[in-house]
TrEMBL record:
Protein known as: TIGR02611 family protein
Transmembrane segments: 48-69, 75-97, 118-138
Keyword ATP-binding appears in the UniProt entry: no
Low complexity composition bias: residue spans: 12-25
Signal peptide start and end residues: none
Length: 156
């Protein structure tokens, strides 16, 4: 009958996980494997707990990472880890994490195509930038001028 669905259109494909299927309109589509957290998301309390837990832990990691960015250490790595935790439940975090990964890969690919003197110059520039940030952080936070202290040790 026109306008009604055919019997074979309503039946799910019979395949095992990892196989492809050729249902009408979806040629060679991979079957969806359930996410490990889908059992938690299946209950209203579990879904809420997962959102709160991911938001709290991910947010705390992002804030901690941002605090550590000007200091020597893995500040940006902690920020990215926080985004990964947030991406478990929030689409905006998944998009931001994908964007960050793409930019990091673009930068790495660009740098690897350069000659070793250019890479050394970029590395030296990064070292100088980190040194200036550490100097400024210590100067503002503790009132200690590391350059003057170092110069004083060198002159004695």
């Amino acid at each position: 009958m026109p306008g009604q669905m055919q019997q074979h259109d309503r039946q799910p494909p019979t395949t095992t996980p990892g196989q492809t299927t050729t249902t009408p309109g979806h040629a060679h589509r991979e079957l969806h494997r359930p996410h490990p957290l889908d059992r938690i998301r299946a209950t209203p309390g579990g879904r809420l707990a997962l959102k709160i837990g991911a938001g709290t832990l991910g947010g705390a990691l992002v804030v901690l990472g941002l605090i550590l960015v000007p200091l020597p250490g893995p500040g940006w790595l902690i920020v990215i880890a926080g985004l990964a935790v947030l991406a478990v439940e929030y689409a905006w975090a998944r998009h931001l994490l994908r964007f960050t990964r793409r930019q990091l890969h673009r930068w790495t690919d660009w740098l690897l195509r350069r000659s070793w003197p250019i890479r050394a110059l970029v590395g030296a520039g990064g070292f100088v930038l980190v040194a200036v940030v550490v100097w400024a952080s210590v100067r503002v936070s503790f009132g200690i001028d590391l350059a003057a202290v170092t110069w004083g040790y060198l002159n004695t």
